Amino acid sequence: MKASLKKNLCIGIFLAGVYCARAQAWIRINQLGYTEGDIKVAVLVTKEDLNVAEFSVVEAATQKTVFKGTRINTFGAYAAFKKGFRLNFSAFHKPGKYYIKAGAVQSPVFAISNTIYDGTADFILQYMRQQRTKYNPFLDDSCHTEDGFIVYHKNPRKDSTRIDVAGGWHDASDYLQYLPTSANATYQLLFAYAMNPGSFADEYDASGRKGKNGIPDVLDEARWGLEWMVKMNPGKEEYYNQIADDRDHKGLRLPNKDTTRYAPNMGLSRPVYFITGQPQGPKYKNRTTGVASSAGKFASAFALGAQVLKAYDPVFAASLVPKAKAAYAFGQKYPGTTQTIPFGAPYFYEEDNWVDDMELAAQTLYKTDPQPRYLEDAMAYARKEPVTPWMGADTAHHYQWYPFVNLGHYWGSRQPAHAAEYRSFMQQGIERVKKRGAGNPFLMGVPFIWCSNNLTVGLLTQLSLYKEASGDRQYEELEAAMRDWLFGCNPWGTSMIVDLPESGIAPKDPHSAFTHIGHYKISGGLVDGPIYGSIWNKLIGIKLYKEDAFAAFQSPLVIYHDDFGDYSSNEPTMDGTASLSYYLSKLQAGCVDSIVTVKRVYNGPAAVKIFKK
Predict the structure, then answer these.
(1) CA distances, 303 to each of 115, 320, 481, 497 (Å)
(2) Does the pLDDT at position 446 exceed 60?
């Protein structure tokens, strides 16, 4: 390169940096783009007192203005910004590459295409495979094969007895394993396939290695979860809720290099916590009141697995039916919640609700064994908690109301006897979140508690399913706003899914030993997401390892960092990632009515006929 060209290039880069440093306004977009028929809204945020009356859509290749828009909603101060504007260009449909321009403010380039979500539901399965324990296909190595030894058994003589519970998934970037999150993840994967089977490919075998095996990869992953759950329920009224505890958090290491020892003479075996229905913990105790929250999750995952997998392995599927019924009966016998175990620190998953789990179990069991009592039970449970309590709340304890979406309400909306009542429950929750977010330009009404992205996915799922169940399209802009939030239309302009899109702004430095010490990419994981500044400022042990690229966008209200050191906002979670599988598969299917889509695109064994009306 000639010296003069080098000099001019350096000057250009310098000036661009100065411009970016001085910029006080930004346009946020969905970095994956928009389908032709999407509601399309960009959000302009500014630290100055700007007024925006018009904006343009500009074709990136030709620099020609192809659309002028005046559908603009103006908002006051929010987060780090003085004003915000919603720029609606839904009337523009032509496929291509474009950017938005409003005065001197310009957005990144984005696509309009009906293929932008192709492959995304399979993309996130990369992270699920990376989370596998026992055999980890990502590392092509084994880990935690000696799990485990029993703790808190109802028969004290069985404490410290060995039990084979190796398998399943690590919960997040630590190596604990929890029944509540794993069972929910398993159900979500099965549900996604049942609703949109044509969105999933077969590129990996059952062990997670590259290579077709005649089974969609999402079902290979779901079965990995189910087989572990079977191990966690080895006998009548014998259920386990957790493997390992916070002694895991002693240092950063890859899972196949884990040398943590939990007890003398146990080698690398880890504790497996028996479900007693009573508070547990040697130093700090949880607030367990019963077993139904976990028993219901066992029952619903087993029941759905029995239905969806029977076309692929009828023997295994049939074996899940009695286990589903037994788990449901166990939950009825001992109502209440089972919380996870704190050991050396007072932190645990503080799940306080359980009727939603039993409602979902009853609805799913009815699909396997259509006894009217299951529908009667489900309705009774639903009326006890018509709205998942986080919806409309400002804050909550960690995983206090879990799962973050009640799929039992959706199944109930498909039953003629009480369909309208179930739909009203779904709508009430949506209305509460909508009201809470109505005053900001992103329409964000989800509370910024730990794992706020998981709540956002739960809301997206409920919005999508409510529309499918009711035909009511009034919340489509809210749904689009929540979808776009996950892909960059948020205060930081970043996707919340690792490496999606690869070429855009997305998490690249998540809180994970895989990335930090192994220097591996862990594509596909949904990170925890934005967190209240009031929570973040009180957390222990957070240390940013690099300059904050989002410093200009942080505020006392809410914070997000793409930095390994921020375990509160940038740690991927297994259950949050699995919960995305339904919504991404729905987007890929390009459907408004997912039932119609199942009928139209399904080309495998007739496993999902049970889901048709």
Answers:
(1) 34, 7, 34, 30
(2) yes
Measure the CA–CA gap between 327 and 360, rounded to whole angstroms: 13
**Which residues lie below 8 Å from residue 435, measured CB to CB, with a gap of 6+?**
392, 445
| Average pLDDT over all residues of the chain | 92
Residue pair 195/611 in contact (Cβ under 8 Å)? The answer is: yes
The dihedral sign for the CA sequence 581, 239, 129, 219: negative
Q: What's phi and psi for 99, nearest 5 deg?
A: -145, 160
Q: Is 439 helix (H, G, I), strand (E, B) or coil?
A: coil
How many C-beta neighbours within 10 Å does residue 370 have?
A: 10
Query: Is the pLDDT assigned to residue 220 strictly greater than 80?
Result: yes
pLDDT value, residue 541: 86
Please state, in angstroms and rounded to a whole number, the distance separating the CA atoms of residues 544 and 565.
Answer: 5
Residue 565 reports pLDDT greater than 60: yes
Q: Please report the DSSP string for 491-504 in residue order.
A: TT--BSBTTSSTTS
SS3 category, 353: coil
Q: Tens digit of pLDDT for each residue in 540-557? A: 889 999 999 999 999 999
**What pTM was estimated for this model as a whole?**
0.93
Q: What span, in angstroms and rounded, lies between the C-alpha atoms of 174 and 171?
A: 7
Model confidence band, residue 475 (pLDDT cutoffs 50, 70, 90): very high
Return the CA Rg of the chain.
24
CA distances from 31 to 450, 496, 561, 566 (A): 24, 11, 18, 23
Mean pLDDT throughout 416-433?
Answer: 97
Where do the DSSP E strands lie in 416-535? 531-532
Q: Which residues pair with 55 in a beta bridge?
A: 69
Q: Which residue, chain included where needed, has tokens 């310009």?
A: 106
Q: What is the pLDDT of residues 115-167, one digit of tens each?
A: 999 999 999 999 999 999 999 999 999 999 999 999 999 999 999 999 999 99
Measured between alpha carbons, how far is 357 from 293 in angstroms, rounded to an integer? Answer: 6
> What is the rounded end-to-end Cα distance, in angstroms, of the chain?
67
* 563 has pLDDT over 50: yes
Report yes or no: 402 and 184 within 8 Å, Cβ to Cβ.
Answer: yes
Alpha-carbon distance of 206 to 167, in angstroms, equals 13
CA distance 74 to 489: 16
